[in-house]
Amino acid sequence: xxxxxxxxxxxxxxxxxxxxxxxxxxxxxxxxxxxxxxxxxxxxxxxxxxxxxxxxxxxxxxxxxxxxxxxxxxxxxxxxxxxxxxxxxxxxxxxxxxxxxxxxxxxxxxxxxxxxxxxxxxxxxxxxxxxxxxxxxxxxxxxxxxxxxxxxxxxxxxxxxxxxxxxxxxxxxxxxxxxxxxxxxxxxxxxxxxxxxxxxxxxxxxxxxxxxxxxxxxxxxxxxxxxxxxxxxxxxxxxxxxxxxxxxxxxxxxxxxxxxxxxxxxxxxxxxxxxxxxxxxxxxxxxxxxxxxxxxxxxxxxxxxxxxxxxxxxxxxxxxxxxxxxxxxxxxxxxxxxxxxxxxxxxxxxxxxxxxxxxxxxxxxxxxx
Length: 369
Known about the structure:
By secondary structure, the protein is an alpha/beta fold. It has helices at 13-20, 50-60, 81-94, 107-119, 152-165, 167-170, 185-193, 197-213, 230-236, 244-255, 266-270, 273-280, 290-302, 311-326, 355-368; strands at 25-30, 40-42, 45-47, 123-129, 135-141, 145-149, 178-182, 218-220, 241-242, 259-263, 284-286, 331-334, 352-354.
């Protein structure tokens, strides 16, 4: 996003405001510029700055007031550099942890701002310098994503999807800060094979606490099977969690699907994770017959979890999807985070709902809002 000088007061304010109103932003103006009729208070002194008009104009256009740090919070050159830094520190403290970002040409102010940016590695900064010494910065507030991993393939796909799709929204090479923790899959399997769901929950809660300790603002769990204890884990979590099954159900509703097939582990196909999430929205869930469930479950644990992608297994899964289509399914939920290794929109007989990629996109969307 760039802000040119020519015609910026009237010509671009509304489009800028509309874009800013869809995100959480900090806007900081610094430096004085060409004199105009607009004046505003900065401490006990008055200043006149051309960019003040833009800040006020954005406010008039209903940009979120709670996210607008008015121009006098940083860099008014009526005061000394020391007072500027002190003012920045006071505003930062008063904002309850909010961070002040500046692109001021003053080396001392810039150094302070850059250190600040480093401390809050989640703020994406946009900078622009106008003529007559006026400068101001816009910083997008980005949440830190936590990934609670269970299997390597599912976690890797979730992480990779976030990092690959973020640049389209944030700029080249950019993505939110991400922290991930995983216990050995063997520990999960030991609990699952004993039907010990409390044990499964204990591992997840431990991982959630660890990503939260790393600074994550919220977390996702890119594994469908363990979502059986999602509610229990959420109650103990110090940060918000996004449900993979509820997210898929919401996507089904948005696409207008009323009957969908679900492929996953035996725990998913026979359990309540998707029946509950889809049922709340009055969407019918259909699963393969007993023989088909055994085929799908075997492929998942004998091959996909280990990262193996066999064409013969893909053919078997496609055959099961064709059966689901014949039973009236409008789409198929890939309710196992490893199934996308072999099934995709290009080879599926019906539209796919990739639970892993949908969760990653939801995480990215939440991080930016």
